[in-house]
Design brief:
With 172 residues, the protein is of the alpha/beta class. Helix content is 41%, strand content 20%.
């Protein structure tokens, strides 16, 4: 009887831990840079139609920094970081140094349009599922910073801050 009770307590504790991990993410993931096979390499091609009916091609951003952000409207961290992306977009528009592009990760275009209408943002948004494969995205939000030469210089998992990205750009 005690053995069954102790086993049930252990199993219950493990389940609570797993649920907490799924709900809140892995510890230490906030604004964390991470290793990626893309670091130091040419950015994979990103091009195609945007959700607003335009087109985007990363090759046209040559000579500027580009932040590629993978996100979904169902992702709490993505919602939290969105104002930071708005601030980055405004900073980039002011000085012409940074261009943002977001890539939808497993979401519906109408949900994305509603999010941008509510929270702001005018940068290109691609619904290109194969792009997530090219970048080996596992969990959103994830962002990649590309230098003006088209080389991936940072992989940021979890939410970003405008100050973090601006600091990396200004330090280069």
């Amino acid at each position: 009887m005690n053995r069954a009770r102790n086993s049930a307590i252990v199993v219950g504790g493990v389940l609570v831990g797993l649920i907490a991990l799924l709900a809140f993410g892995a510890p230490g993931r906030d604004n964390e840079t991470a290793a990626s096979q893309l670091l130091g390499r040419r950015v994979p091609a990103i091009s195609g139609p945007t959700l607003d009916g335009g087109t985007y091609d990363i090759d046209l951003a040559a000579g500027r920094w580009v932040l590629i952000n993978f996100f979904a409207t169902w992702c709490a961290g993505c919602i939290t970081e969105h104002p930071e992306l708005v601030a980055l977009d405004q900073w980039g528009a002011t000085n012409g140094e940074l261009e943002l592009v977001s890539v939808v990760f497993d979401d519906q275009p109408e949900n994305v349009a509603a999010l941008f209408e509510k929270l702001g943002g005018t940068w290109p948004v691609l619904n290109a599922p194969s792009t997530a494969v090219d970048f080996q995205i596992r969990q959103v939000p994830e962002s990649f910073l590309v230098n003006p030469d088209g080389v991936v210089v940072a992989h940021i998992i979890s939410g970003i801050t405008a100050d973090q990205v601006i600091g990396q750009i200004e330090a280069s």
